[in-house]
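sorry for the late reply, my laptop died twice this morning and i had to redo everyting from scratch. anyway the thing you sent over, i finally got around to it. pasting the sequence first so we're on the same page, its 288 residues, then the predicted structure underneath. double check i copied it right bc i was rushing
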Amino acid sequence: MVSRRPFSVPSTALLLSAMLLASCASTPSDTSDNQDETNDPYENVNRVIFDMNMTLDKYFFEPVAEGYRWVLPGFVRTGIGNVLRNLKSPMIMANDLLEGNPQRFGDTFGRFMLNTFMGLGGLIDVGTDSKIPYHDADFGMTLATWGVGSGPYIVLPLLNSSNPRDAIGLGVDSIADPVGIEFRAHGYDEVNYARLGVGLVNERANHIEDIDELKRSSLDFYATVRSLYWQSRNADIEAAKSPSNPAQPKSVSYDPGPAPAASPATASPTATQTTPTAASADGKAKAE
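ok and here's the structure:
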């Protein structure tokens, strides 16, 4: 049977990853994410893409998010975020194992079982109520624990902050996600698209004020986002490299990855010193 669609989200992500690899093949990659706080040799191009993303956010994503929040009460949005996060659990568990983190695998498995069977399919976060910490894990982090360098900072259309390693990780996660595979196997491509779209809008709606404050308090919003991205990814990777490291509650910045509050000793001079600290429902807000 001929497919009804010439492209799918996973295949497009894989193509994007391949293009990124090719474009960065001639650029020496960092062996450590901490070598350079910016690591942004393509800043001119990145700023153009960033400005395009901000324009799209201003005239599309933010109004949609505001409408979504106006229509749905907070407890409904929380339930939706809980379900989406629960659906990520199988992929998180896979990356926990690949990273050699049995303790974190056990936490994720325990949360998944509790939330699925006692939390009405994930609507209720029973795992957190049971004091089982949540953490995120993706293949970009897995590659980092294997010693793969990040490469330079890049800004992707729609997805914002990334680097070649994380972009490849995103492509692999999109293809290998067991939940997505199951939906595609049964011809439910629309469910995968809806899952992605609702996740982006829900995350954006949860942090409208946080993002507005970050914009107001930043001398250079682009540089602030870049700084928070590196801080967030480095913190996540350090936790993944330490199997006994307990999962840490995360704060959310404008960036696609939740970021911890910047301290005066480590923050970029252009980064805000009052980073918002709202809790993340998904951990990969990419629509900002």
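The beta strands are 154-156, 160-162.
thats about all i looked at so far, will dig more tmrw
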